[in-house]
Each structure stands twice: as C-alpha cells, then as structure tokens.
Amino acid sequence: MSKPLNYDAPRRSVLDLDEDQPEDLRIGGTSARSASLDVDDAVAAENFELPGADLSDEELTVPVVPMRTDEFRCGRCFLVHHRSQRAGEDICKECA
C-alpha cells in the first residue's frame, strides 16, 4: 500500500524528485535493460503503405482459379458461389 500524499506540502523541484526515484527511472539515467533499436528509417519506411499511394508499377501475383461447373457468379454482387447458394436466376441467397 502506498503512503498517503500530503497535498498541502510545498512542491519539490524536479532534481529533488530525481533523487528519490530508482536508478532505472531517473532523468538521463541509462539502464542496462534499456532497449535500443538500430533501424534504418529508409528500411522501416519500405514496409508501410500510405493510403492513396501510386501502385501502378506494382504487379499482382495471385493465382486465378477458373470457375467450376457447380459454381455460378451472382449478377448483383459478382461473387462466385456454390450452386447451393442460388436463390434465383443468377442471384445468390445473400442478395435476394
């Protein structure tokens, strides 16, 4: 349990507070456990995509699987569904 705070007591300076803190939390103190990252900004920026970025020079490498005989393409949502999802002529159950 922490000790109660006396809100009427005069405030102490930052240097006085620094002496009361453990070595890991002191201002300007370095700890052996502190992590440092050696990341090049250019390398880190390559992994991020900005919205609205020009991707015209990018190539898509997605395998295209032809539609099977037991599948159909919905006329409203244009998704390929199994024939068990057909609600009517070229309309899936989700769009009906």
Chart the SSEs and their pairings.
Blueprint: H1 14-20, H2 41-46, E1 71-73, E2 80-82, E3 86-88, E4 91-92
The geometry reads as elongated
Specify the structural class: little secondary structure
User: How would you sum up the major sheet?
Assistant: 2 strands, antiparallel
Head-to-tail CA distance between termini = 63 Å
Q: What's the total number of strands?
A: 4
Strand content: 5-15%
Q: Low-confidence segments, ≥5 residues, pLDDT <50? A: none
Mean pLDDT: 76
Helix content: 10-25%
Q: From the alpha-carbon coordinates, what is the Rg to the nearest angstrom?
A: 31 Å
| Number of discrete helical segments | 2
| N-to-C SSE string, H for helix and E for strand | HHEEEE
How would you write the strand order of the largest sheet? 1-2
